[in-house]
Amino acid sequence: MAYHPRENWDPARRRRLQSRREFLKQAAALGIALPGLGAILAACGDDSPGSAISLPIGTPDSPVTQPLSDANAAIASGLDAEAGPLRVYNWAEYINPDVIPLAEEAIGASIEVTTFFNLEESIQKLASGEVQFDVWFPTGNYISKAVAGELVQPLNHEYLPNLAANVWPALADPFYDGGSLYSVPYTVYQTGIGWRIDQVDDEDVLGLENPWDVFWNPKYKSITGLYDDFQETLTMAMFRNGVADPTNAGQNDIDAAADSLAELVDLMNIRYTIDGAYAGIPENRFGLHHAWSGDMIGSQYYYPEDQDPSVGRYAWPAKIDGSTAKGNIANDCMAVLKGAANPVLAHRFLDYLLDNDAALENFGWLGYQPPITSIDPDTLVADEWVLPDMGPAIVREDDFANPQGYVPTQLSPETEQAWNGAWSRAKGTA
Amino acid sequence: MPTNLPGAEVESVGERRWLWPAFAAPGVLWLLALFLVPFYAVLAVAMGRLDPIFQRAQPVWNPLQWNPAAFGDVFESLFGGPLGRTAIRTLVYVAIASALCVLLGYPVAYFVSRRAGRWRGMWLLLILAPFWINYLMRMMAWVNLLSPEGQVNSFLRWLGATPPDWLAGRHETVILGLVYGYIPFFILPLFAALDRIDTRVLEASRDLGAGPAQAFWRVTLPMSKQGVLAGVVIIMLPMFGDYYTPNLLSGSPRTLLIGNEIDLFINQSTSGGGRGAALTVVLMLFVAMLMVYYLVNISRTTTEARR
What is the complex's ipTM, to 2 decimals? Predict the structure, then answer.
């Protein structure tokens, strides 16, 4: 078929070129058809959550011992250390850089640290089997999954004398990993509220029956932040709504928490960050923020030189006088990965970080407290490890027994999907 | 070609036709492989299943076993749901940022190509200097500059103004970040296009009575259209997937872009990897449509030029 040149005929290629108008018409037609495509794809697909494996979920009242198997046995005792280097996979900025050379000297090998942004990212990479690390830093509520998914190997306690000698007894034998078969504790922390007294009135936090309500106070619009962490923030919203046991909350409570958080977008111009407590408050980007206790202790190092760090404050709602609200208290762990190329070095590294002096040195930079019996919480302020006004951020062993303290446990797969959906709704994306 | 003319020892047209494509073929095949293989991997994740322990998205490589449920979820949310709002916001941000890049970058490119004289090299160096620093670090520098006690607000206070909180979830801050991050990518191809314009054409327009403004509007601007289009395409494509700029300069759900949604699904949830991969594929197809439009435009212009 022949065309006139005015009809976009290209004689060199002997074909008719598509005009811009025709291209745009076709694109518009495609755009009109696409919404219907969504319904067709949804009808063709299987949206069910899939058969998730039932995992032993430990609680403080019902501890679990993780299973052992011959296919994933601990290393033998008395082995020589490998040549290294030891590969450590840790949260960003979660170990004192000055402790690394000391640890290298102690274990007799070099150490390489790789960081992750959150546990979901780390699990994606570890579960793929494409990365090779020796040591990993999960939270306690991920240990069951890590064991079931064969990410971690059992520990040989003969390489870990500091575990029994130095660690708080309750965390040397935790409810999520009875006998510390697969993990040892690293740090302990509360989740509370951080603020600056030049931006926020103390009474607006400490005077509330439910201090979590301060995050819904329009007086602090545009200077308030929450953690960009779906478990922490949804739990906080549930505490604010009076839910006593978020891990086992029903769909109504989960939805109500999502709605409460979604409300904050317009009410408070809320922002979600991970560094808002330890860096945002000192830099005056926030006056009020969801805060891990360790972040607030460490925040003293992030104030500009010409500013006084004593403007920072912290409170854990579970310990505020007159408060009926609950607050999270938890610990992070260390584990040796299955298939680690340097398991003996890995054990030595874990044991080194449980050493009294090393743990205190690490704490001085990190801000997150190690559960070491030789560290007396009552001396941390006097010894200038913690600023006087940050005294409430010091975690004590008996805080884990506080009836208003809540130790988060592992979510079941169905619950986790429900929480993921709620988080998307809270951020206005679902 | 006639063989009795000087220089007639050149190769015949038939031999030349395969020579240059043959040089380009290995590189093209390599780039195709590096595009198609990752694209298939993302598609396999989008059409995959959740693993029973970690509930993370697992790829299914056999198309006969693909599950399109994630695409269904994404399309339903894009057309009439919250993802649709985010998509519109992304389009608006990218359109405004691109327009600002054109308005701010065109004079710079014109000056460097036409007026910089012997200082042209220095100006090009200054334009390229931001590339010496990682994009992330440049955005973090803006966090410091725009913080409540930062240099920008200190200057505004010195002027007697009440400075805003730039980092409190403001749309204009995110757009500013996009413009700052991508404007060098617009200026450079436009500079190349302007530099290629034959000055004799401009001289001819002046000889025919056109003033400087007329010469610009009727000669320079139309002849630089392809350069503008190339620059806009180069900056728009990565802007659509940008998520770090809103994260650093805002953090508010009000300024979430499509890139943030993908990050939310893949990195901040345990079971959203499939939807994140599906949204990635949808975004890639949309961006591909823009590329096709650009290529259609280039092809038409080249054909018209040959006539």
Answer: 0.78
